[in-house]
Specification:
The complex is a heterodimer of chains A (89) and B (92). By secondary structure, chain A is mainly β. Chain A is built from one helix and five strands, in the order ββββαβ. Chain B is mainly beta and 92 residues long. The chains are: A mainly beta (89), B mainly beta (92). Strand 1 of chain A pairs antiparallel with strand 6 of chain B, so a sheet runs across the interface.
């Protein structure tokens, strides 16, 4: 899993049926010290995250499908947690 | 998934049998400011997208799921057409 920051919502009316009812959020992956790392990506939100929040992301199709509780969903990223705090020793 | 813009299409007559009937489109990935980022790729269309539209696409093994029970050998598929998106929290 990786850590990212939610940068905004995405709305799509015409989409694969497995996405119906799911919330899509753009997420910027973060490196150390909360600096942006790599390109922003689009993830299915399964925990009710909001803009600016730091979240826990899975970047794997199987894990993302499990988080959505939908079999054979064409997804490769999902938000599975909202981070309260994080300490790098 | 990633957001991108459809910038063209690809026609291939000689191809894997499982690709028959699969529409192939050229997609330019976009950053949160709607600017091109990274390299253009070929994605199978599972959303009825057209040139000029903003779409989102999935990469990897899951890209073939929309075509089930067929299992075309693809690693990217367009699975939605974007109405709008915002990136008020973007750093750049």
């Amino acid at each position: 899993m990786i850590v990212g920051r939610v940068v905004g919502p995405l709305v799509a009316t015409q989409k694969h049926r497995k996405f119906e009812g799911s919330k899509l959020l753009l997420v910027q992956p973060l490196g150390e010290n909360d600096t942006p790392r790599g390109p922003a990506l689009l993830a299915v939100d399964t925990v009710g995250a909001g803009v600016h929040e730091r979240v826990l992301l899975v970047l794997d199709g199987k894990a993302a499908g499990d988080a959505m509780q939908r079999k054979a969903a064409p997804v490769d990223a999902a938000i599975v947690g909202i981070i309260d705090h994080m300490d790098l020793a | 998934m990633q957001v991108g813009r459809v910038v063209g299409d690809v026609v291939a007559t000689l191809k894997d049998d499982a690709l028959t009937g699969v529409k192939l489109l050229l997609v330019q990935p976009l950053d949160p400011a709607h600017q091109p980022v990274g390299r253009v790729l070929v994605a199978a269309d599972a959303a009825g997208a057209g040139v000029g539209e903003e779409v989102f696409f999935v990469r990897g093994r899951e890209a073939s799921f929309p075509f089930y029970p067929a299992e075309p050998p693809i690693d990217a598929a367009i699975v939605g057409i974007v109405d709008h998106w915002s990136a008020e929290g973007a750093h750049s």
